[in-house]
Structures are given as C-alpha cells and as structure tokens.
Design a protein that fits this description.
The complex is a heterodimer. Helices cover about 70% and strands about 0% of the residues of chain A. Chain A is mainly alpha-helical. In chain A, helix 2 packs parallel to helix 7, helix 7 crosses helix 8 and helix 12 packs across helix 14. The radius of gyration of chain A is 21 Å and the shape is globular. By secondary structure, chain B is mostly helical. In chain B, helix 6 crosses helix 8 and helix 9 runs parallel beside helix 11. Chain B is globular, with a radius of gyration of 19 Å. The relative contact order of chain B is 0.20. Classes of the chains: A mainly alpha, B mainly alpha. Chains A and B meet through helix 5, helix 11 and helix 13 of A and helix 4, helix 9 and helix 11 of B.
Amino acid sequence: MRFVFKTNYDQDIRLFKHSGQVFWYGLLIAALLVAPSLVDEYVMSQLHFILIYSIVGLGLMLLVGFTGQISLGHAAFLAIGAYTEALLQARGVPFVISLPCAALFSAMLGFILGLPALRLKGIYLAIATLAFNVIVEEVITRWESLTGGNTGQHLKPIVIFGYSLASDAAFYYLCLALTILSILAMMNLLRSPTGRAFVAIRDSEISASCMGVNLAKYKTLSFAISAALTGIGGALYAHKVTFISPEQFTLLQSIELVTIVILGGVGSLHGAVLGAAFLIVLPQLISIAKDYLPGNVAGSGLQAVVFGVVLIGFIVFEPLGLYGRWLKVRTWFELFPFYRKGMFRRQKSYMKSERLR
Amino acid sequence: MLNQLLQLTVAGVAQGCVYALVALGFVLIYKATETVNFAQGDLMMLGAFFALTASVTLGWPYWLTILFAVAVMAVVGMLLEKIVLRPVLGQPAFTVVMITIGVGYVLRGVVTMIPGWGSDTYTLPTPFSEGVVKVGGIIFAVQQLAVIGMTTALCLVLYVFFRYAKLGVAMQATSQNQLAAAYMGIPVRRVNMLVWGLSAGVATFAGILLAPVTFVHSNMGFIGLKAFPAAVVGGFGSVPGAIVGGLIIGIVEALSGFYLPEGFKDVAAYVVVLVVLLIKPSGIFGETARKKV
C-alpha cells in the first residue's frame, strides 16, 4: 500500500496524487493512442461511441453526481447539440465554430431549464426535466422547416482547417482529444471553489447556503455546464451516426444516459467513463448471449430485461457502481489479508422525509 | 359549438379517468412510502395482459376477468415491494426512482418473452357495445360512459375503504406518520406492502379500462408518463388531487387536440405540468409548509 506524505498544500490539489498514477494513466493514454492501428473497424466504431458517451456521462455526472440534481431530460440537450451542429454544418459553418456553438446553445437551454430547478426538488425536478425532454422532442419533430422533422438531417464528415476527418482513426483522435479535455476540465472545475460549491449543494442545500454559496447561481451554472458537455457529445454523436432524427432523442435515451452515472458510480469521474463503456458493451454481450438462448427468450425483450436487471442489481448490491467495485478489489489486494466486509458499507441511512410533518 | 365543446369534454374526461387511476396509483405509493413508482404504467400493462389471458384464453366473463387480474396484480405488487423496494428503503429519492425504472424495463421485457403474450397487439373484448347514446344533440360513445362510470364506482369504493375499513384507516395513518402509526400498533411494513398491492390493483383496473382505446401491447405502459403530470397538477400526495389532475390533463388534451394545431395534443400535458410547477409547485391540492432542517 502506498502512503502519500503531504509536505505542502499544493499536493492537495495536484491532478496526479503520486507517480504511480502518472504511470498508469500514461500507459492508458498510450494504449488509446495506438489503438486505431491495432483494432478492427467494428471495435473502432464502438470506441467512438464509448468516448462520445463518456463526454455526455461527464456532463451528467457533474449534475447528478456532484451537484445532486436530477435530470431525466438530458437526451434533449443531446438533441440540441446534434441539431445545432447539423444545421450549422449544412449552412457551411466550419466545425471549429459550430462545435462551440452547439455547446453554447445547449448551455443556454440548460441555464433556462436550471431556473425551475431553483424551486423544485427531488421528484418534481425529475418530472420537470422529463416534460422538457418531451417538449423539445416534439418541437424538433414539428418544426419541419428548420429541422426536417421526421425525415431527419444528414451530416457530412468533419473538416478542420481543410483537413478532412472522414476516416475512422481521425474521428477517433478528435473524440479522444475532446474526452481528455473534458476530463481535465472537470478535474480542474471540481477542485476549484465552483466545484466545491457544487458538492456542498449536493450534500446539503441548507448548509451550503448558510456558508454563503449562492444556490441560484451555482445550480443554474451546474445545469449549464452539464448541458454544454452533453451538447458537445451530441454534436459528435451526430457526426458519428451521420443521420439524426427526433426518435433518437426520446425519454428512453435520457434514462439510458442516467444509467451511465448509476452503473459507473455516482460521484466519480472514473464512473462516467466506466459507465459509458459498460453501456456500450452490454448490448454486444446480449447479442452474443442470444445465440445460446431459446427462441422466445432471445426476442426483442431480452435487452430490456437484462438492462432492467443490471440496473436493479447495481442499485441494490453495488450502489457505488463499477468504480466502487474497482476500489473494493484494489483495497482487498492492498490490505490482504486484512480486508473486512464492511469497509465500504454505507452509513445506515434513515428515511429522510421530503414531507413536512 | 357548445355541443362540440361538451362532447370533447366527455371524451377528455373518459381519457382523464385512466390518467387519474394511474396517478392514483402513484399517489397511494408516494403517500405510503415516499417512493415514486415509475413502473406504474408497466404494472398497468401487465395487469391488462393478465386480463387478456383470463378473457380470451380462458373465456371468463368480463367481471370475473377484472377480479382475477386485479387479484393477481395485487400479489405482484406486494412481491415487488418485498423483493425489490424494501432493500433500498431510505435511500435518496433518485436511487429509488431509478430502481422503479429498472422494474419497468424488466416488466416490459418479460411480457414479450411469455408465450401467448409476446410483442403483438391484442384486443380485450368488453361487454360494452361500440354504439353511441344521443342526449339532446350530443353524442356520447358508450365505451366512454362505461369508463367514466366504472372509475366513479372505483373511487367510491376506495373512498369507503379509506374512510371506514380498518385497513384503510391504518393505511392513512401510516402515510401520515409512520412512527406514530407504529407506536399505535400498526404493522407499518405489512401495511406498506398492502399499499403496493392496492396500487397495482388500481393500475390493473386502469389498464382494463384503457384496453379498448389503445389495445393491449407491451408498450401501453408509456401512458403512465402522462399520469405524472396528472399527479403533479393535483398535488403529489393528495388522493382527490390525483383524480382532479387526471381529469384536467384529459380535458386539456382533448381540447388542445381539437382546437390547436397538430402536435400540441402530445405535449399539452407536459406544458401544463411545467406551468403548474413554475407557478405552484405543490399542485392544486398539495400542502405547503416550510421544510425543517
């Protein structure tokens, strides 16, 4: 086991806590950099999706995992990012301008959605975001003169400064660069006063406001940043699938995005990436398993059942998610043979009533 | 003009009755356990499938079908509470919401795997004719009147149950203050389990009423998403509020579907709920009080 002796205050906010982390993350990045020359086209495509969903997962993690707000409407931001990108590209706006535009426009709508969040809590916020998602989806469907409605939008490959990113590898490097930038931005954000304010709001709104955290400002800011990241994810998603239509951004999509956060582990940046990877890999595993199952079980419903069971299983048995499982495994090896069962047990929580009597 | 308005209102009320019953299911569970059950619509769907089996495969009469489906679903509801929900009791609301969403996924998927159910669309036969009744120039569909009548009857039964039956009073007590109820000798856990059973039963009833309108298929539960606005408009946690909210959403939908351009019908419920949340987040019948630290 490694002990980090802190000898000055800078060590508290360093991105890497010790040289081991530098080594392992460096190795991971190196592996990701050489990946395009090693894996086939299909795996490459899955890697694209994992990276894109990681960015979305990071955005949602900030909102759900670090600010403690609920959103069942993030597919709407994904849609807004995707459509902004598609429409701007169709009008000849270069990618380096249209991507920030997609992020900014999403952030703007995120800010607007954040306004009701100032008054709403828990389930009411969930329903408000749900309503937002349905309305955005319907607006995109009906505003045919702008969005093309159900006929959708086609996208051309990205061109940056005259250099086309049509090849899988080039698009992969773009996604990878944006994912790493997002992760670094989130790490920096979370160790800044703003990030601390978010966490304070999550842990207790009342104590946060007593400590001088401006709830209105930080809640809307959290919604805006989260929406911006989701918008970037949406723009990349649009280029990945090259065809977008309103039915890709339904409430079910929103729920899938939230499961990234739940499966990965609420409140950890690793969790966002792990959850995204899990969400992309799961359907592949299911389609492999289908070959070994009898006909009526292997129908269209299997994916829903597995998805639901995984979700329930994680919440009941592994509330810390995949990252929590990894922490447990690592601690088991570090402390061998002194690991105890209860080391990661949640504190017993009693029912906190939202009712007021 | 007025006739048209009245006719649309009746159609809206009939649809609203289904929303109201699903919303009633949410509210019962929410009041008892502070859990918002996103699987309510899927419980409704499962109930409709049980009714389908009893009615079509076994050839039972309509009334027996209802009793059978409600009874089976009450057991399913109680089992759900015992197996899935009780282990996460006391965790943040969001976690519990996600677990009920997971339950919804499982139910939707399982239904497509069961032989004889699958992912096809079925019709559930009803004894009510397809005919219409004319009252002073206004045309009512018999189906709609039947839905309204049966919902009213169920509401009366529930009212009597909560007002006079020992178990009903115990449920009220539990939902108001669990600790005090436990001190009074009410077995709170068992009562909560029964509330889930009751709620699943009510959902099944809604599913059977809805079956002639949307037919029976594995995705009919998504109508539950429209019952959320109903519950919020009425004030989450108020039983009469759920009924009134359901009717409001139903009428607004029917009217906006007719008077406003295409597309407004589907979002009308959500626009209403956003407006209500902005103006009066506690809903029409909700209590407002300060939160204590």
